[in-house]
């Protein structure tokens, strides 16, 4: 099976540098605000992220769609099982201000 991860030019470089794919929020910390109208929207968003990352399997293929250039890049292969990174204190939170708690390692 092949999975498509949508990224921008900046985050694509980080995905390549650290060889992972992930799903999450576009901001550093999820919050109940105007984009998430209620507690249920927040829960539905998390449920969707879990469902997305749960579909990947070791050996599946990965393509990245880079929005800035409107092109697909790949093909990568999933290596191992998805995992949850709760703290987000690494390169994603610090430099990119993204919250991608659901991740999977990839290889070329």
Helix/strand class:
alpha+beta
H/I helix tally: 3
As a whole number of angstroms, the C-alpha radius of gyration is 14 Å
Instruction: Note the run of SSEs as H and E.
Output: EHEHEEEHE
Q: Averaged pLDDT, please?
A: 80
Number of strands: 6
Q: How far apart are the termini?
A: 16 Å
Beta-strand portion reads 25-35%
Please tell me about this protein's structure.
The longest helix has 16 residues, at 39-54. The chain is built from 3 helices and 6 strands, in the order E-H-E-H-E-E-E-H-E. 30% of the residues lie in helices and 34% in strands. The radius of gyration is 14 Å and the shape is globular. The model has no long low-confidence stretch (mean pLDDT 80). It has one domain (2-107). Strands 1, 2, 3, 4, 5 and 6 form a 6-stranded mixed β-sheet that branches. With 108 residues, the chain is of the alpha+beta class.
Task: Briefly summarize what is shown.
The protein has 108 residues and is an alpha+beta fold.
Write the layout of secondary structure elements.
Layout: E1 2-7, H1 9-18, E2 20-25, H2 39-54, E3 61-66, E4 71-78, E5 83-84, H3 91-96, E6 99-107
Parallel strand pairs: 1-3
Antiparallel strand pairs: 2-6, 3-4, 4-6, 5-6
Structure keywords:
30% helix, 108 residues, single chain, 6 strands, alpha+beta, six-stranded mixed β-sheet, 3 helices
């Amino acid at each position: 099976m092949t999975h498509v991860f949508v990224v921008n030019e900046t985050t694509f470089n980080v995905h390549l540098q650290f060889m992972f794919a992930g799903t999450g929020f576009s901001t550093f910390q999820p919050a109940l605000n105007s984009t998430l109208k209620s507690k249920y929207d927040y829960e539905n968003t998390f449920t969707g992220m879990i469902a997305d990352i749960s579909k990947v399997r070791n050996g599946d293929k990965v393509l990245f769609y880079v929005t800035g250039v409107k092109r697909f890049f790949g093909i990568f292969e999933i290596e191992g099982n998805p995992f949850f990174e709760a703290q987000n204190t690494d390169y994603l939170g610090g430099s990119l201000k993204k919250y991608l708690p659901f991740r999977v390692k990839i290889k070329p």
